[in-house]
Amino acid sequence: MNLILIAAPAAGKGTLASMLNEKYGLICISAGELLRGVDPTTELGKKIREIQSRRELVDDSITNELMKQRLMQDDIKNGFILDGYPRRMAQVEAVTEMMKELNLKIDKAILMNIDYETGLKRTIGRRICPNCKKTYNVLTGVNTPKVENMCDDCNVELTLRNDDNEETYKAGYATFMQNCPAVIEYYKNRNMLIELDATGSADDTMRQLENILKEVKND
Ligand SMILES: [Zn+2]
What we know:
This protein is of the alpha/beta class. The longest helix is centred in the last third of the chain and has 24 residues, at 166-189. The chain has helices spanning 13-24, 31-37, 43-53, 60-71, 89-102, 116-124, 166-189, 202-218; strands at 2-7, 27-30, 80-83, 108-113, 126-128, 135-137, 193-197. Helix 4 packs parallel to helix 5 and helix 6 (116-124) crosses helix 7. Residues 129, 131-132, 134, 151, 153-154, 156 line the site of zinc ion.
């Protein structure tokens, strides 16, 4: 099965992708990781890092090409998940074209719904143990550290990631709201969209998805 994950910031996309990888062996292909994975000593690598250091978006043509190269590898034959791509209509068109060319097919696009407030709490409440990298949240009531601001395992003070602030979240959310409705509409019109309520735990979101996929199979 080949899936696309569409999610607002802090909806838990990475977690769901790794659960799908563990349980079903689906290979997660993240646009961000592909970009970070380009050798920084090459021309392309230098160009990508330069664009990202200005906090600008990398050209679709670069992302599309990296994506295509990745999809030509053999390990995706048992199924893959596209994570963080396609985000815009131009990328949707590129994916559709790519699938034809490579003789592949996207089965479902999964939309992980989360409201602004819940996403914000998840983001600004997130704390990380600098030692074991375990993540906590001090606002949502899920994964609360046992002792205030301390790692349960290491007894080390928790830290906040630079990007986990309201401004970054707000900007990411605005970009999502600007680009995603058209993408969602596209997959909905093709009867490919699965909508999940991602405001609960990761296990809960996974359960919803598995139930829907079961129904799809039985149809
Ligand atoms: Zn720790």
